[in-house]
Amino acid sequence: MHTHYHHAPQMVTFEDCIRFHGHSCPGLASGYRAAKAAMEALGVMRPEDEDLVAICETDACGIDAIQVIAGTTAGKGNLIIHDYGKHAFTFYKRKDGKAVRITFNRGEDESTNEMNAIRAKVFSGTATNEEEARFHELMHTATVNVLHAPAEKIMKIELITMDAPRKARIFASVTCECCGEAVADAKTRRVGGKCICIPCAEGTHLAKKK
Ligand SMILES: [Zn+2]
Ligand SMILES: [Zn+2]
After folding, report:
1. Closest-approaching ligand to the CA atom of 175
2. Could you tell me the strand order of the sheet in which 155-160 lies?
3. Is 0.85 surpassed by the pTM of this model?
4. Are 28 and 18 in contact (CB under 8 A)?
5. Protein residues near ligand 1, an ion, with CB under 5 A
6. Which of 72, 129, 149, 156 is deepest in the core (most CB within 10 A)?
7. Residues 29-38: pLDDT tens digits?
8. From the CA of 187, how far away is ligand 2's center (Å)?
9. pLDDT per residue as tens digits for the range 133-150
């Protein structure tokens, strides 16, 4: 039995996104802009009052801002992630079936090549202190640009028609006959007459028997 406690809604800001995500970056800023633009396009004032679903085509930084701003979270089942490596975010409003898809322009400028060159060094640990500092400066500038650029300059906002995404269901829990851990019955597989969990069936269990 699930009981949901609703918190009093509060205004959420980009600062809240940074706190949740752990750092500020252009990807986080994109997610922030996408969530804000989608809410505006769908006429959503307070996401906690609406039945919004976010379908994200990336598993990168931006989805953390989506969760904070649009209130669509992994735990509530209204955050769907397809890792297609695209900065594309679709929002569906269950109340009226309206949907909007937001994509980002690549936004290349002079600093892009420099950033890419330094990024490789920073992530392989071979950057000098100066390069490291320059990288953070470029990242900061890119983040500020994404946060403040006019919407039409950085993204495409399209109202689309789509089928309602399937609702997250609550499953009864059973015990895996292989590892003994509790598992939702709809996620079990029948192998050799036993009802077992997916990791046991696929041999990918994180706590393998020694
Ligand atoms: Zn990030
Ligand atoms: Zn198992």
Report:
1. 2
2. 79-81, 52-56, 88-93, 98-104, 155-160
3. no
4. yes
5. 25, 27-28, 61
6. 72
7. 999 999 999 9
8. 11
9. 999 999 999 999 999 999
